[in-house]
Amino acid sequence: MAETYHVVRDVNLPLIGKGVPRMESRAKVTGAARYAADEPLAGALHATLVTSAHAKGTLTAIDTRAAEAVPGMRLVLTHRNMPALGDLARYTTGGAMQSSFFPLASTEIRYAGQIVALVVADAPETAEEAAKLVRPRIDGVAATASMHVDGAAEPVPVPEDRLPPIRVGDMDAAFAGADTIVEGEWRTPIQHHNPIELWFTAAEWRDGGLTAHVPSQWVTGTRAALATAFDLPVSRVRVLSRHVGGAFGSKGAVLNHTLVACAAARMLGRPVALYVSRSQMFTVGTMRPAATQRIRVAVRDGRLTGLEHTQIGQTSRFDTFFLPGTEQTTRLYAWDAIRADEATVATDVNTPGFMRAPAEVPTLFGLESAIDEAAWAAGVNPLDLRLNSSAAGGDSVSGLPWTSHGLDECLRRGAEAFGWSDWQPETRAMRRGDWLHGYGLASAVYPTYTAPATADLRLGSDLSATLTGAAHDMGMGTYTIVRQIVAAELGVPQDGIAVDLGDSDHAPNSVAGGARQAASFGSAVLDAARRVRSRVIELALAEGRPLAGADPTEIAFADGVMTASDGRTARLSEVVGLAPFGVIEVRGTWVPAAVGMKSVMELYRSGNAGIAGMVTDAYARAAFGANFVEVAVHTRTGEIRVPRMVGAFAFGRVLNERTARSQLTGGMIWGVGSVLHEATEVDHRYARYINGDLGEYFVPVNADVPSVEAILVEEEDRHINPLGAKGVGELGITGVNAAIANAVHHATGIRRRDAPIRMEHML
Ligand code: MOS
C-alpha cells in the first residue's frame, strides 16, 4: 500500500531539528538519573552467576555444600532446584527471548561460560565468595567456538522461507562482458558490545506480582516474557528501565539471567539484585558473530555490473541466527545482475544477536572493500565508480522507487568536505615523516525499519504536559526529541513537558532496535500531539467560543496562543480549561501501512509486532551515507591511526541535530574499533574466549580518533512516516571498516581481507 504523508507543519520547523541539549543531561552528570541498578530495593539480597568452564558436555554433578556453608548465604540455584518456567519463545517466533536454550533446565553444557548456578547471599561479597566454592563437575567433549578454524561445521543455507536468496538479471552475461573482475573472501571476527552499564536484574515479588528493574531496549517484550515464564497476566508484571547506560543491541531480547534472578526472588520471598560481571557479559548473552563474505564483482566501462555475494555467519548449535546483510547491501548500486545468498555455520557458542548495524557491518566490510579493489584494478576513481553505479532511479533488486535516496549527495558532499579530489591512484605516495598517509572511502547504508508504536499525552490547562510510553533512551536522545515534537505541534514550552519512558506500564512499544524508534515511536508521539491539537481546535471553534467559525485547518499554535487565519486569537490555556476537568488526554498510535492494524493487538499482547523493512510493496526505504577517512601508518612500528574522518549522512528529517550528530560520530568511532581494534579471541583448544574483559578487548580511545565530522544531509521524505524521519542510530558505523581498510591500502599498498587490521599486518 502506498503511503504519503504531509509532514510536520512548516511553521514548526524551527524547533524540530534544533540541537536542543538532552533533557536528562543534568540528571546524568549529577548522578540523579536512576539506572536499573540505582532503584532502591528495601531488603534486597545479592546474586552472582556461576558459569561453565567447559564448552560442551554434561554436568554430571554440582557440589554446592561448601558454598551453602558460607555465613550469610541464602540460596544456590542450579538445575536441581530451578523451578520449571512457562513455554518461552525466541523473538523470531513471537516471543522475546534471545536464545532458545535455557541452561538451568537441564544438565546440558552447550557453550563455555553458560550459567550453571546462581548464588544468592545477604551481601554481594558473600555471594562472590560462595560462588567460587560451587564445584560443577562436567564431562566435557571437544567443541568449536569459531567458524574460522579447521574442523568447523559446513555452512548451511538459510531456509528460503526465512530469507529468500536474491536473483536479479543475467549473471553470466554480466561477468562475460566485464572488463574487470575481483573475487575474494573477507572475514570479520566475533565482537562484543561492552556497554559500560553491565547487564543487571533486580526482581521484587509483591502480592504475587513481579517488578523487575532491567536495563532494557524493550520493556514491553521483557514484561511479556516474564509473564509467560512465571504464568502471570501481563498486568501483574512491571519492567522498568528509565535510563540505560549503553545497549547497542545487547539489551534488546531477554537474556536468561533475568529469568534466573526473578525465579530466585520468588523462591526467597525477598528482592534479588543480580549483576552480570564484565567477563560473564561475554558469554551469558549475545554478541556479533564472526562472518565470511564471499564476493565476486564485475565492472564494465567504469560501472558496477555484476555482484555475487554469499555471507556465511556464525550461529549456535541450537538456533539459526542469521544476518540478512546482503538483503540490504545488494541494493546500494544499480547492478545489472545480482546473486546473493546467506548461510550459517553452527558453533559451540551462545546464540549470537544484534550488535550495532548487525547485518551491514560485516557485509559492507567485504562489499565496499571489493568495490575498492575493483576500482583500482579497473583504473577508475573509487568515488566515480560508485557515482557511475547510482541506484537513485530505484532499488535494483525489487525494482521499486526509493522513498528518498540520498547516497549520491552524501558521496558528493562528503568528498568535497574531505578533499577527496587530492586522492591519487598511487600507494605509499603520501609520506609525512615516519608516517604513510592514505585516503579511503566507503558507502554507508541502513534500512529504514518502522514498527507499530503507541504513546500517551496529557495536556493540562496550565499548559503542563506529560508524555509517556514504553520506549527507551539508551543515550540516543529519545526523551529530548519526543519533547521537541510535542512542543512543536502544540506551541507550548518544552520546560513544561514531562517525559517518562522505560516503564512497561506505559503505552506498549516494540524493541528500541534496528534504528526504528525515533521513526516509529516519534510518529506515535506526533499522532498523540495531533489528537490533542484536534481536540483543542474543536473546543475553540465551537459555537460561542473564541474562534467560532474559523477555518479549523488553518489554526496556528505558538507560544501558548492559537491564531486563526482571520487573525483572531485564543489563549491555549483557556481553551484547554474548557475540556472536562481542564485536561485533555489521548493515546497516539502509529502503524506502518506495510505492517497492518492487526499487529497492534500483538503489540499489546507481546510487544512483538511486525516491522516494515527495507522493502514494502510500494517502496524501498533506507538511510544512506558516505565515509571518507584518512589513516596514518607508522613506517617502522606499523601502528595505524585515523587522524581524520568525514561522514555525510542522509536519513530523512533531522529531529535534533545535536543528538543525531552524536549518534553518527559515535557510530563512526565504533567503526574504527570494528576494523582496527576489536576481536573476541578464541582459544581453540577449549572453545573459550580469551580476552573477556575491557583490559584485553581493545576499543578506540581519544588518541585514535582526533577529528570526526558528521555532515547531516537533510532529506524531505513524504513516504516513510508523518515525521519524514528515518533511523539514524545504526547508520554511522556502517562502511567505516571498509573505508579504513581501503585507506590502509592507499597508505601502504597492503590489502587486508580480514579484520581487525593491526600493526603486525603492516610490517
Ligand atoms: Mo540495534 S543492534 O538493533 O540495538
Describe the structure.
The protein is globular, with a radius of gyration of 27 Å. It is α+β, with helices and mostly antiparallel strands and 763 residues long. Bound molecules: dioxothiomolybdenum(VI) ion (MOS). Dioxothiomolybdenum(VI) ion is lined by residues 217, 248-249, 252, 354-356, 358, 513-514, 730. Dioxothiomolybdenum(VI) ion (MOS) binds next to loops. InterPro entries: Ald_Oxase/Xan_DH_a/b (IPR000674), Ald_Oxase/Xan_DH_a/b_sf (IPR036856), Ald_Oxase/xanthine_DH-like (IPR016208), AldOxase/xan_DH_MoCoBD1 (IPR008274), AldOxase/xan_DH_MoCoBD2 (IPR046867), AldOxase/xan_DH_Mopterin-bd_sf (IPR037165). One of its GO terms (molecular function) is xanthine dehydrogenase activity. Its EC number is 1.17.1.4. Pfam families: Ald_Xan_dh_C, MoCoBD_1, MoCoBD_2.
In short:
This protein is of the alpha+beta class and 763 residues long. The strands form 7 sheets. A 7-stranded mixed sheet has the order 3-5-1-13-10-11-12, sandwiched between helices.
Characteristic key phrases:
763 residues, alpha+beta, Aldehyde Oxidoreductase, domain 3, Aldehyde Oxidoreductase, domain 4, 3 domains, 30 strands, binds dioxothiomolybdenum(VI) ion
User: What is the CATH architecture annotation of the largest domain?
Assistant: 2-Layer Sandwich
- Low-confidence stretches at least 5 residues in length (pLDDT < 50)? none
Q: Which class do the helix and strand fractions yield?
A: alpha+beta
> Can you tell me the CATH topology of the largest domain?
Aldehyde Oxidoreductase, domain 4
With strands numbered from the N-terminus, the spatial order across the biggest sheet is: 3-5-1-13-10-11-12
